[in-house]
Specification:
The N and C termini lie far apart (46 Å). Strand 5 and strand 6 form a beta hairpin. With 190 residues, the protein is mainly beta. Helix content is 15%, strand content 51%. It has an 8-stranded antiparallel β-barrel with strand order 2-3-4-5-6-7-8-9. The protein is built from 2 helices and 9 strands.
C-alpha cells in the first residue's frame, strides 16, 4: 500500500509540474536574428534572417525551461551592401551550395535540450542546432525576462559542412580566408 501511495504522489507531482509548464509561441514578426560573418584578416558582412516559427517553455513563475525554433533560411539578407553594389550577389552566394544550400535545406532548427538557470533572468542553454540537415550540440548564454529573450550565439560553420573559404580546409587563401565562426544576435518576443 505504501508503494502505491508513493507512486500516486510521484504521478501527481509530475502532473502538477507538467500542468504548470507553458508553451508560449514567439512573435515571429517582431523577433529578430542578426548575423555577422568575417574574414580572417579584415572585413566583415552583416545581415539578418527571419524566424519561421518558434516557442518557449516557461514554468509557472515565468522561468525559462526550454524552447524550439525554426529559421527560414530563404530570408537571408545582407544589410551592409546596397542593391546593385554587391548585395544580391552576396545573398545569392550565401543561399548557394557553397554556404547554406537553401534550395535543399530551406529551414534551420534550434531545440533547447538543457537550461541552466544562473540568476536575474540569465541562463546557459545547450541546444541542438540543425543546419543543412546536420545537427550539432551548442552551448550559449541567454537572458529571458518578462516577454523578451536575448542570446548571442557563435556557430562554427565548418561543423555543418560549410567549408567555402575556410583556411582549415584550403591553403593559400590569404586575405580571402573567411572565419569559420559566424555570430548570431537573437531577440525573441512572446
Amino acid at each position: 500500500m505504501k508503494v502505491l501511495k508513493s507512486v500516486l504522489v510521484l504521478l501527481m507531482v509530475g502532473f502538477t509540474m507538467f500542468a504548470y509548464a507553458q508553451n508560449k509561441p514567439i512573435n515571429v514578426k517582431s523577433s529578430t536574428i542578426e548575423w555577422k560573418g568575417s574574414k580572417v584578416i579584415a572585413g566583415s558582412h552583416v545581415g539578418s534572417l527571419q524566424f519561421k516559427s518558434g516557442s518557449v517553455v516557461l514554468d509557472s513563475k515565468g522561468n525559462l525551461k526550454g524552447g524550439s525554433f525554426e529559421v527560414d533560411m530563404t530570408t537571408v539578407m545582407v544589410k551592409d551592401l546596397e542593391a546593385g553594389k554587391g548585395k544580391e550577389k552576396l545573398e545569392g552566394h550565401l543561399k548557394s551550395d557553397d554556404f547554406f544550400s537553401v534550395e535543399k535545406f530551406p529551414v534551420a532548427k534550434l531545440k533547447i535540450t538543457k537550461i541552466k538557470s544562473l540568476k536575474n533572468g540569465k541562463y546557459e542553454a545547450t541546444a541542438d542546432l540543425t543546419i543543412k540537415g546536420i545537427t550539432k550540440s551548442i552551448t550559449f548564454p541567454l537572458s529571458f525576462t518578462g516577454k523578451k529573450g536575448e542570446a548571442k550565439v557563435t556557430v562554427d560553420r565548418t561543423q555543418f559542412d560549410i567549408r567555402y573559404g575556410s583556411d582549415s580546409f584550403f591553403d593559400n587563401l590569404g586575405d580571402k580566408a573567411i572565419s569559420n565562426n559566424f555570430e548570431l544576435d537573437i531577440i525573441v518576443y512572446i
